[in-house]
Amino acid sequence: MKGVLWRLLKIAGRFRNWMALSILLGFLTVGSSVGLMMTSAYIIAKAALHPSIAELNVAIVGVRFFGIARGVFRYLERLVSHETTFRLLARFRVWFYRALEPLAPARLMQYRSGDLLARIVSDVESLEHIFIRVISPPFVAVLVTLLMWLLLGMFEWQFALLLTVFMALSGIGIPLLSHLLSRNSGRALNEIQAEINNLAIDAVQGLPELLVYHRAEDHLEKLERTNRRLVKTQRKLALVEGLNEALLGLSMNLAVFSILYVSIPYVSGSLLNGVYLSVIVLGVMAAFEGVATLPEAARFWENSRQAARRLFQIIDAQPAVSDPPVPSPPPRQTSLQIENLTFRYDPDDPPALRDISFHLPAGGTLAIVGPSGAGKSTIINLLLRFWDYREGSIRIGGTELRTLAQEQVRKMFAVVSQQSHLFAGTIRENLRLARPDASEEEMIAAARQAEIHDFISSLPEGYHTYLGELGLRLSGGERQRLVIARAILKNSPILIFDEPTANLDALTEQKILQTIWKLSRQRTTLLITHRLVGLENADQILVLVDGKIVERGTHADLMAGQTFYRYLWEQQQQSLVLETLLDRT
Amino acid sequence: MQVDKRLLQFLKNTPGSFLFSILLGLGVAGFTIWQAWLLSRIIDAVFLKHHYREMVVPALLLFAGISLLRAVFTWGQKNAANKVSSHVKSTLRNKLSRHLVYLGPPFVRSERSGEISNTLLTGVDSLDAYFSEYLPQLFLSALIPLLILFFVFPLDLLSGFVFLFTAPIIPVFMILIGNLAQSLTQKQWKTLSRMSAHFLDVLQGLTTLKILGRSRDQIKVIAQISDDFRQTTMKVLRVAFLSALVLEIVGTISTAIVAVEIGLRLLYGKIEFQQALFILILAPEFYLPMRLLGTKYHAGMEGVAAARRIFEILGTSPLIRQSQSRPSLDLRTQAIRFHQVEFRYPGAARPALQNIQLTISPGEKIAVIGSSGAGKTTLAQLLLRFLDPTRGEIRVDLHCLRDIDPDFWRQQIAWVPQNAYLFHTTILENIRLANPTASEEAVMMAAQQARIHEFISSLPDGYQTRVGEKGARLSGGQAQRIALARAFLKDAPFLILDEPTSNLDPETEQLIQESMNELMHGRTVLLIAHRLGTVQDADQIVVLSEGKIRQVGKNEELLQEEGLYRKLLEAYGGMQ
Fold first, then answer.
1. Residues B300 and B375 in one domain
2. Chain A closest CA to B463's CA: distance in Å?
3. Which end of chain B has fewer beta carbons closer than 10 Å to its terminal beta carbon, N or C?
4. Is the ipTM reported for this complex over the cut 0.90?
């Protein structure tokens, strides 16, 4: 627990001046209230003794001052605390990204699904509240308590001590109590929420099955039962929260009661001027504003702590790959030579690749085919140095891949895959991501080669068309062509296509493949696919099953015998012919 | 406004609790006033009348007692308000989930399934703040100041008027500045969410950025975007927070005015000390409920926004008719006939299916072929009664399908989709979905027929293995075989099968093919086919294109005709 808070504070530490200023202003806000109530009480009490008006003048000025000051301080405090928050948020984002970047993609495989990523983003965001709601309140509370020591101490230190006891009760005792009371329900709540979440997803996504098997009613009843439990648990927590508020008020009133009880004899004994009795009581009442947000701070901390813990858990992983201390110079030539490569993602896992050897000469075209799960993408992961291999060797232009810096390796490859991401932004920004210093002509030339330039030009805003949720929705084919254009613009010596046509309909697939084969004539190309279309264009085909190369040769070689390749090809032709021919009508 | 009204109607079902919570809230206010009165009396007695402690002890104890009561009432008020919100949440969530089932699969189609389950969970939860905090506070912020005025006016007209005239300033300003600030802040929140969208975008594209060698640059970009956001937001907030400034200042300045005004009159003996102190103690309490309303406004509005979406879903009507008739049906002997069936999605430019004329005789195997978007899925959905024809009708014997209770009708059907959905439960329960009363042996039997038993047995927890997020992830081929097992377990006379497309390893494919053949045996089958091999031995082949049937017949018959089918086979032969 300490660990998480400490690490967060260290990250936030850079803004300690902003934080200090915000805390000071928060304190001055509460302080003004105390001042307002105390001077008001003073005026009234003093006036009751009918002095000359001159004796009240200072207090009247004071009342007006505090009346305005409170609003102004509150305003400034909100500005400064938000300034701090936004600075912190930016800092947390950058910090997190910086830590995450070396881990991608090897250590982030398990977070691939959109939901989990979205959760990471919201976890980072939930840290933004940490200053206003968690860090600042205790400091303000302590400062207000000190102020009250000073003010009440002027009269009697016992009063100050009494008040401190009650403020501590409110600021520490009550949050502690509610933590104890809600601990079990809080835990139960998490479980029930996970459960109802699953049930709701099941209800929505599994609705066809539920209807067909006449189980919708059962499922609804299950959902209703869980819902009842959820609401019941939420109610328990709300009860504790209500208790919190009730006890906070009670604590304040009992503080007033106690201080009155103790101070009355002082007045009677003329040890305390009666004028100050009301001053003290009203001051005490106002001071409790300083601890009022502490129970909430405790709750918020509980949430932030969990969010922070999840984030730390992610980024505390070791990167899968690290650069060699002294990287080799970049290879001059771009042939690929892989020998006896065996690889497992985890020492306990079965090998994803077994004894793979092949040679891709500069300018050649190699296709790797096979059913899903055969290990095709693993080869790419190793080529890009996302993982490191132990057994066997990968050489590029004669240089062992392991001895090259990661960035250097990735400069050698341009990749088009089904996971290639297009970012929210203009087409132009997306293309130029590959090479920010590319000229307009080079960009257009790349788009032409990918056969997407005409489409882009036909858009009203051309290359400045915005992509993404709020912008243009591309079809699967257009999307893939943009990714191809981006890869061309990158101008790397080796082109890798990793299932470039997955999830496209047959007709679009054929058209994209035509483009790809055209491109492959101009550079070293590695194509990975489970769709056996147009492979007569490849110089060499490797058939990968279960991590092993089972067959190799040209399309003609492989079609000549009773090969697995041929079996796959025939299977696919059937569905292909069904889809494409019907499409053309 | 409309939404508010509809939400308020929920109070009718829990009128007691809500009224009770308001009454308790007023009770708390009453105690506060009483306490102020006691405090002023005690201080007055000690300070001006020089009473000793013993003489004020009863009043002090009364004060303490009221403190306790006030705490109890505060708690009770929260509790009662929460009871209302719990009831509303419960009711709405149940109602919403029922309505979703009623709307059926076409409504919850996959691309918005996330948004819908989110509305069901967080959307409904966000009504909590509306009912348990915003709404009670709305009433209390009108009632409590009135209650306080009721006590202040008889004591001191002038202070009463100060309260009375400053009070409306708060709501007026809240509305005036609030509206402006609200729209400004809302815009800002939108930029904030756009900024998090950017962050998410970058995280999703991290691998791409790395391959492009641009991932480190993003550190600067993220910092830059966050910084720009901060600057523009702070500009807005400088204005938006003015509303809070005004609220604060009205509250505190009024207190200051009251203090000075009664102080001066006290000086000239025009008011009693005790009354003056009483009014002074009450001054902050007078403005407090309105300030609290300001802090709860945002949460309340969030609830209204969520409610809008909830009511929108509840207001959607389903695409099928809820019919009750349960005639005696037996698809083992009765044929299904399509008469001039058309289906058009609401708002769609062209029908998904039109002019469908088709007879499915008992025991026949019908293969449907066509490219994606040709209407194959719609055809299956009509038979499953997820949809009803917009024109024409589907008849079974003499009964129109539209008049038959859909649940009753579906008892006749087993269905194997391409992407079978697996529920967050054990594999056993996932198969048993098809027949909740089936014994474990029957489930295993079905799994054996689906060629998945061996795989399940090889798992450490066997049939008790949980599926889903934290459980095992099954591959597409495995999921499909679970769906097959369900179909075996249901043992229905009519079968709708979606043949798997490629990308399965040959062994799995072989297993699925075998199992499908076994399943089809002796049943009426509608097969959505993806390969010519399975098509060729069908009793009828339906060639669909752009929502219309182009050709129907047996393989041999279609080969005789000039048409698409022959072209297909020729092309295939040519490709070989």
1. no
2. 19
3. N
4. no
